[in-house]
Amino acid sequence: MNNLVFEISKPLIGNGRSKNAAEAKALIEGLNAALALDLKRIAVYCHCCPLYNFVTGRWSAKQRKVAVLINQVALLRRKFVYCNPVLVPRNDIEYAFRFAREAIISQVTMQPAESTHKRVAIIEACVICLEDTDVEHIFSVDECQHRYCFSCMKQHVEVKLLHGMMPKCPHEGCDSLLNVESCRKFLTPKLIEMMCLRIKEASIPVSEKIYCPYPKCSALMSKTDVLEYAKSAVAAGLQCVGARKCSKCHGLFCINCKVPWHNNMTCSSYKRMNPNNPAEDFKLKSLATRNLWRQCVKCNHMIELAEGCYHMTCRCGFEFCYNCGAEWKDKKATCSCPLWDEDNILYAENDSDVDEDDFDEDEDEDDYYDSESDGYFI
């Protein structure tokens, strides 16, 4: 099963570009090739669980286009003396991943130019949306060279940034970080600014982070950044112990008290006159208590559970139980709290009103499918 003796690579054409439709079309090509070679008895080793269930009759295709393709597969199977599909575990065939990647790369085609004066368009299929895209609008990740269209990359990066996370390569299992300069090709100026901020946040250890106390600024700095002002102040003969200058708004603040600079007053005097936390802190804590928000114990970031399970991952990477705050270790809970509350689970409404062809993939099948690692071999 690990010896590849015959290989077919063809571009994906036509309107059926969902994952299941692509798998079914590939199987049809393979069966036609087997018939052309006058093979009578074959076994189809299949990694794709949805395709296997369709072909064996365990599932009925809900998408009309997929159903038509599965019927074609059934007609072709009747032409063999023996044609049996076999579902095999992932990684069971050594060349599976290489073959799948080469099949995708083979879809790069040349479109004939309308005139000799026009650029010859090179088309490549994005492995996420399966849309044919001009290679000038295909993004290649610098570290790993995985390739995706600008549209898919923009959506991927935007979602990660809005969740307070550092965007990485979309490829499953790939930890390659994205370069902000390269991402300027498809990101808006606002997203570029947000990405630069996320990169800066990730580069500063939690214990080194300092935020400007002025409400209209709140710029993030490191202790190293603000130390530069202290050195210049001493050189100028100023005795402002604890005074620091914001690198963005240039406002003075106290590094010890974390408040705007208290002129002509020592830190101890300030704390004696202001024993309680600022009113804004009190309001925030009251709001957090009222709305059942949780504060990350690692970076103190405030987190709200909108919907879903109690397993939370903070933007700093710390994982914990939203219900009790206990840490998750190795993707496992260290507490006995339930994983979710039914009130936090959202269910789709008016399912009967949704056209099945509005989706590229049936939701029941999606959990079993991985576009990068599933495939079939004859």
Automatic annotation (TrEMBL):
A GO BP entry: protein ubiquitination
Organism, as annotated: Populus trichocarpa (Western balsam poplar)
Source species taxonomy: Eukaryota, Viridiplantae, Streptophyta, Embryophyta, Tracheophyta
UniProt cross-references to SMART domains, sorted A to Z: IBR
Role, per record: Might act as an E3 ubiquitin-protein ligase, or as part of E3 complex, which accepts ubiquitin from specific E2 ubiquitin-conjugating enzymes and then transfers it to substrates.
Protein name: RBR-type E3 ubiquitin transferase
Keyword Transcription: no
Entry similarity comment: Belongs to the RBR family. Ariadne subfamily.
PANTHER family named among the record's database cross-references: RBR FAMILY RING FINGER AND IBR DOMAIN-CONTAINING
Record region (Disordered): 348-378
GO cellular component, one term: ubiquitin ligase complex
